[in-house]
UniProtKB/TrEMBL annotation:
SUPFAM superfamilies noted in UniProt: Rhodanese/Cell cycle control phosphatase
Coiled-coil annotated spans: none
Superkingdom of the source species: Bacteria
GO molecular function (one): thiosulfate-cyanide sulfurtransferase activity
Record's protein name: Rhodanese-related sulfurtransferase
PROSITE patterns: RHODANESE_3
Assigned keywords, A-Z: Transferase
Pfam family of the protein (one): Rhodanese
Ranges of residues in domain Rhodanese: 24-112
Amino acid sequence: MKTEKVDDASLETWTVEEAAQAFDRNEIVLIDVRTPQEYMFEHIEGALLMPLAFFKGDKLPDQVEKRIVFHCGSGVRSERVARAAIAAGVKKIAHMEGGFAAWKGAKKPYIGTNMATGAPQAVMPE
């Protein structure tokens, strides 16, 4: 993981592997900052949705029990949200490098949409 000091705060950039392992161990909360439409089409199972357009950094819970790691489609929006969280007073925050595209590229499981039925379905890439 890469760490950048931003004034008196820390912005961490996690790899997909780091995020996936910590998520599997229930050590982090993964927050998807994409649009509701993107999330409904495909998302990481168990990730929460907090779209960039509606983000309020001062409403984030503390990170005593679990760390917060943001993700988006490519890593651009999640970094922007992480920096907004720092501007709102959060002292340590993280985002996932490469976003959901990197998650899929690393062949991690996710929930997708069955194009024949429109229903959500688990996708387990090989």
